[in-house]
């Protein structure tokens, strides 16, 4: 009896614990289902929207894409599908993009952290400067900093370490330069740490000419403020206006011609040449020295290319889609006559040939990268830029915006601080970076 009792007692207990276990399992399953559902609602929507936004534009590219980013049934397979397993990131973003190796066949492991940006006026270079300044700040880079706003040595073609603030403290450590200079490889190589890369930027020469003409108040300079079409008037007879100005201001070279080429490092004493072979040879020489030249007309594409060249993360190239220094002047867009256009081309031949050269170079490299999912990345990048800008323009409840991992980025999040920096004036960014440099030196001295 005792044995039996004990037996049934144990059986009873086992049956009971079985029931309890079952209940626990059911409860656990319910909780898991609930959590999964929450996640799907939470992140699924956002990626569905992204999918819808991208799918139309990408249908064509998708068909030819050798990359496996896109799945069947027109669905964008992003790592968002793995979103449930995303680690939540601390808001500290400084290490983002570091040592991020690309999955798309690139073998880079270490981001380039020493570079000079040749900042050409009126090309979108302010927006680019902001991106580079943020990167330099996040990577504690040491900038050759000029205290005169965004001007370092421009329009001079020479640059020495003494142009950099506190050069005695930072000497031999400069690995970043972004303010206005004129490219002079020989002299810049002497200031910067060995292996420094050069990045340039160019804009389609006619729109550049129009833009700088009004930005630098040329109508005033040439006494054309009363004209209905100052740009056209100037281009009707550029020599006459330049001659008059040269006489009154006693300057040797023309201030209007080939300004992009000048800043990009075309030898100043040869800017007057008519020899197109010589021009092309000098342009090819410059090409050897630049790691990459951004083409303003293809800005997002250029940034993606830059990211690939410098082994950066997607986070590093995020930008404000409202341009930092955009100005509109109705006179800028007045149509020009055939003769005016011809004169523009005649006096800016080097800019035109140089732009053409770098634009062609750019598209050749796009062709090469297409096999490595270049266009998919551009599309993805544009969507992320849009999302980040939307978040930054109407930050309400959410403190962070989390961008999950993808083929091109580790997961990262942006917050209010980031948003503040996204559209910060480059001059203020530069000062902020310089302050950080000074602080870190002070800290080191105290140790
Ligand atoms: C896709 O590839 C085919 C054949 O290579 C080509 O004819 C077509 O133009 C390509 N389409 C796009 C959108 O690139
Ligand atoms: C999702 O995660 C699995 C396992 O970690 C991985 O094999 C797969 O490539 C991931 N998918 C994407 C799109 O990243
Ligand atoms: C990045 O890589 C370098 C060398 O490959 C290493 O010294 C450094 O610690 C790495 N940084 C991070 C954040 O992993
Ligand atoms: C760079 O500076 C040197 C030294 O002053 C000068 O001789 C040379 O012409 C400059 N090069 C350019 C491209 O401005
Ligand atoms: C740049 O090059 C591409 C490809 O050759 C060409 O289609 C485009 O018209 C060029 N852009 C400009 C502004 O000249």
TrEMBL record:
Keywords for the protein's UniProt record, in alphabetical order: Glycoprotein, Golgi apparatus, Membrane, Signal-anchor, Transferase, Transmembrane, Transmembrane helix
MF (Gene Ontology): galactosylceramide sulfotransferase activity
Compartment(s): Golgi apparatus membrane
GO cellular component, one term: Golgi membrane
One biological process term in Gene Ontology: glycolipid biosynthetic process
Transmembrane regions listed in the UniProt entry: 21-42
Membrane topology of this protein: Single-pass type II membrane protein
Family from the record: Belongs to the galactose-3-O-sulfotransferase family.
Name of the protein this chain belongs to: Galactose-3-O-sulfotransferase 2-like
Source species: Branchiostoma belcheri
Gene name, Swiss-Prot/TrEMBL: LOC109481546
């Amino acid at each position: 009896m005792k044995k039996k009792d004990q037996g049934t007692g144990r059986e009873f207990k086992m049956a009971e614990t079985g029931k309890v276990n079952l209940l626990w399992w059911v409860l656990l399953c319910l909780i898991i289902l609930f959590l999964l559902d929450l996640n799907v609602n939470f992140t699924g929507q956002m990626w569905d929207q992204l999918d819808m936004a991208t799918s139309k534009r990408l249908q064509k590219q998708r068909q030819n894409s050798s990359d496996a980013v896109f799945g069947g049934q027109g669905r964008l397979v992003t790592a968002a599908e793995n979103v449930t397993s995303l680690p939540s990131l601390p808001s500290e973003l400084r290490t983002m993009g570091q040592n991020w190796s690309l999955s798309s066949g690139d073998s880079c492991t270490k981001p380039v952290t020493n570079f000079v940006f040749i900042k050409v006026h009126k090309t979108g270079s302010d927006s680019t400067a902001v991106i580079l300044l943020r990167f330099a700040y996040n990577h504690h880079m040491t900038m050759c900093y000029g205290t005169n706003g965004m001007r370092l040595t421009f329009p001079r073609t020479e640059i020495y370490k003494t142009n950099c603030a506190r050069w005695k403290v930072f000497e031999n450590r400069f690995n970043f330069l972004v303010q206005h200079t004129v490219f002079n490889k020989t002299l810049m190589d002497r200031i910067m740490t060995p292996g420094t890369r050069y990045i340039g930027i160019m804009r389609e020469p006619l729109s550049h000419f129009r833009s700088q003409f009004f930005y630098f108040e040329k109508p005033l300079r040439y006494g054309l403020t009363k004209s209905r079409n100052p740009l056209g008037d100037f281009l009707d007879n550029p020599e006459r206006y330049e001659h008059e100005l040269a006489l009154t201001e006693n300057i040797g070279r023309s201030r209007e011609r080939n300004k992009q080429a000048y800043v990009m490092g075309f030898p100043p004493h040869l800017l007057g040449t008519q020899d197109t072979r010589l021009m092309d040879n000098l342009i090819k020489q410059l090409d050897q020295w630049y790691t990459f030249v951004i083409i303003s007309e293809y800005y997002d594409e250029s940034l993606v290319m830059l990211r690939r060249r410098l082994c950066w993360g997607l986070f590093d190239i995020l930008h404000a889609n409202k341009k930092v220094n955009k100005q509109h002047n109705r006179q800028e867009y007045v149509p020009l006559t055939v003769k005016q256009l011809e004169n523009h081309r005649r006096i800016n031949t080097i800019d035109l040939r140089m732009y053409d050269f770098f634009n062609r170079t750019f598209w050749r490299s796009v062709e090469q990268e297409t096999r490595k999912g270049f266009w998919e990345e551009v599309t993805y990048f544009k969507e992320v830029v849009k999302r980040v800008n939307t978040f930054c323009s109407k930050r309400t409840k959410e403190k962070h915006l989390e961008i999950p991992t993808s083929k091109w980025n580790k997961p990262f999040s942006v917050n209010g601080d980031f948003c503040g920096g996204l559209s910060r004036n480059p001059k203020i960014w530069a000062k902020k970076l310089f302050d950080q440099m000074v602080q870190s030196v002070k800290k080191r001295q105290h140790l």
